[in-house]
Write a structure and sequence with these properties.
Order of helices and strands: HHHHHHHHHHHHHHHHHHHHH
Largest sheet: none
Structural class: mainly alpha
Number of strands: 0
Shape: elongated
Distance between the termini: 159 Å
Helix content: over 70%
Number of helices: 21
Length: about 425
């Protein structure tokens, strides 16, 4: 085959190959459409998620806002003294926030305020199970127990409140709770239980805190701790020597402690208006009578001691004779009449005193001051017997003699 023939065949084959269809080629248009769909779908999903989250947040915020609004209404009503309306508002708040412990606590307070102590206690005990160390929950339970007459439960919850958790001003709040416990115990007449609480309360007061010193002094005065009360009032007077409240309290505390000279000192420093107060005026008069009648007062002469002892004997005789009269002894509520054993005792004491009076003179007591003890011992017995038969004299020289007896071991006053 010639060269020309090969060339013609080769060209013909090349032409045929150009005319034959090749393998199909992918176009770019379908690929771009699928990506667009996916992107649009994702965008829609994101938008829907955002909208859903926004709607959910708006809903929850609205619910929270309604709960807070009802709670605020309840707080305003409760602070205004309308516990019944507060109860309605707190319950509405709990409709929107049923698990809110703060709302439940305030609802319990409102329930207690309207006299529904058992329901309040139920709420509080549930809250206490979750927060056993909560000071405010234990305090609320203490108040409910105190109101219902459960003294042991009240004391227990008060103690748990004192040592419980307080978020704001824990030291000051615990002091106030202990003060409340002290006032509760004193109101119940539980002096033995009150005393250690009062001492703990007073020990936590710095000597410069005038307000709290007055509070603790007043509480001490209501108990049997008159000396502690006097100490507290003296601390107040160190900074404020003209404070009428402290002067009156100090005078009263000194009077009840048997420190009559000090009582006179404090009462006489009161302003004229305060000194005219019937209670202070009565104690001041009695304190003067005690001071002027006491043969054991320091700084007086032997003659004055003897004179006071004999005057006391005559005063006791007068008291016994008057008390021994049937119309007097029978008129006293709860006392025995003159024909009873008490009356017989009064007659025996009167006879003994008359014999002593006939055998002793002031000159005898001056020569032998030791005999004053015998005279005053009889005086104290006579006044004590007359008191049991006819009652405690509210004032006067016989009241003074009974107070002298208490100071010098002749009585338990």
């Amino acid at each position: 085959m010639s060269e020309e023939t090969r060339q013609v065949i080769s060209e013909a084959q090349a032409g045929v190959m150009e005319e034959l269809p090749g393998p199909p080629q992918a176009t770019s248009s379908p690929r771009y459409s699928r990506e667009a769909v996916l992107i649009i779908t994702l965008v829609i999903l994101v938008v829907l998620s955002v909208v859903t989250a926004f709607v959910a947040r708006f809903y929850h915020n609205k619910i929270r806002s309604l709960a807070d609004q009802w709670f605020a209404e309840g707080e305003a009503a409760f602070q205004a003294g309308d516990a019944k309306q507060a109860l309605v508002d707190y319950r509405n708040a709990l409709v929107y926030a049923p698990d809110n412990g703060d709302f439940q606590f305030h609802l319990a307070q409102a329930l207690a305020a309207v006299g529904q102590g058992e329901q309040a206690q139920s709420y509080l005990l549930t809250l206490l199970a979750e927060s056993p160390g909560s000071g405010q929950i234990n305090l609320a339970l203490a108040r409910i127990a105190a109101h219902s007459g459960s003294k042991s439960d009240a004391i227990n919850y008060y103690h748990r409140a004192i040592y419980g958790v307080w978020e704001k001003n824990p030291l000051g709040t615990r002091w106030q709770v202990r003060r409340e416990l002290c006032e509760y115990l004193l109101s119940q007449g539980a002096l033995t239980q009150a005393e250690p609480e009062l001492i703990a309360l007073g020990d936590q007061v710095p000597p410069t805190d005038i307000t709290r010193l007055k509070i603790t002094a007043g509480l001490f005065l209501r108990s049997t701790l008159s000396n502690r009360a006097l100490n507290e009032y003296q601390l107040v007077l160190n900074d404020e020597p003209g404070d009428d409240e402290a002067l009156g309290g100090a005078g009263t505390a000194a009077f009840h402690s048997g420190r009559f000279a000090e009582a006179i000192y404090y009462f006489e420093k009161l302003s004229p208006q305060k000194r005219a107060d019937p209670e202070f005026a009565s104690m001041l008069e009695t304190a003067h009578q005690v001071r002027d009648a006491d043969p054991y007062e320091g700084g007086i002469t032997s003659r004055e001691k003897a004179t006071r002892a004999m005057n006391a004997l005559r005063q006791a005789q007068s008291r016994v004779r008057e008390c021994a009269q049937p119309q007097n002894s029978s008129s006293q509520s709860g006392s025995q009449n003159a024909n009873s054993g008490s009356g017989a005792n009064l007659e025996d004491l009167n006879a003994t005193s008359e014999k002593m009076q006939s055998e002793l003179h002031e000159s005898d007591l001056m020569r032998d001051p030791g005999r004053i003890d015998a005279v005053m011992s009889l005086v104290f017995q006579m006044e004590d017997a007359a008191e049991h038969a006819c009652g405690m004299p509210s004032a006067g020289p016989d009241r003074a003699l009974l107070l002298i007896a208490g100071v010098h071991g002749g009585g338990n006053r």
